[in-house]
What does this fold into?
Amino acid sequence: MTAQSKLRLLPWTGPEGKPCYLDTDDREGFMSRLADHIEVEQLGMAAELLGQAVQVLDDETEDLEKLKLVAAQLAGALRDVLRVATSRGHRLVTPE
It folds into this structure.
């Protein structure tokens, strides 16, 4: 098994909310491609949600429940984006 620093952090968690990792050097393998696809989807959804959140925040007539919902959705999107950034950061080639 590869050292944990060489494992790829996947863009989803396990049943108990713990991180999931992939042990492979094959960037074109099924699981790597699936993880890449999910990361792209998560980033796209976060960008779309950000646009919607800006509209809600600009509308002074929005009620507190709508603002709470947007805040909760933004928190989830931020969690996903941070996981993607962490995973991609770990995969950067660093000179030794």
